[in-house]
Amino acid sequence: MTPRLRAEFWVQAYLRRLSLSEIPAFVVARGDSDAGAVLVKLSLLDGTASLFHRGFDLETGARVWDVLTQGPEAEVDAAITKQREFDPDLWVIEVEDRAGRHMLDQEGLL
């Protein structure tokens, strides 16, 4: 069994990767340092956003980033609030990019 990467370390590495590509991002909510799940909100800076969470591809067993919800930014924020009420150990990262870049599909982030 492969050891899990600490949530805090993954978040720091993800923020650094975004920074190197000059994509603004910041931690909106800090979760459990070791095992907190991570949500990534992608704001397109036009009033819309997408919310990503990590899951599994049932056919391959691979870890993937799926869209949990998308649409008006206020609705995405409401979904985040609801998720945080259910799981207070949840990390929330907000990425702001008009071009829709989030880099979650990059090698090493799955």
Across the major sheet, the strand order is: 1-5-2-3-4
CATH third-tier fold name: hypothetical protein tt1805
Give the overall shape, derived from the CA principal axes. globular
* Oligomeric composition of the shown chains: single chain
* Termini separation: 17 Å
> What is the element string, with H for helices and E for strands?
HEEEEHE
* Name of the CATH architecture: 3-Layer(aba) Sandwich
* CATH uppermost class: Alpha Beta
Question: How many distinct folded domains?
Answer: 1
Percent strand: 25-35%
Number of helices: 2
| CATH homologous superfamily (4th level) name | Protein of unknown function (DUF1491)
Low-confidence stretches: none
Main β-sheet description? 5 strands, mixed
The structural class is alpha+beta
Number of E-type strands:
5
What does this structure look like?
The protein has 110 residues and is α+β, with helices and mostly antiparallel strands. The chain has a single domain, classed as 3-Layer(aba) Sandwich (hypothetical protein tt1805), CATH 3.40.1530.20. The protein contains 2 helices and 5 strands; from the N terminus they run αββββαβ. A 5-stranded mixed beta sheet has the order 1-5-2-3-4. A hairpin with a 4-residue loop joins strand 2 and strand 3. The longest helix is centred in the N-terminal third of the chain and has 14 residues. The model has no long low-confidence stretch (mean pLDDT 91).
Helix/strand layout:
Blueprint: H1 7-20, E1 25-29, E2 38-43, E3 48-56, E4 63-72, H2 73-86, E5 91-96
Parallel strand pairs: 2-5
Antiparallel strand pairs: 1-5, 2-3, 3-4
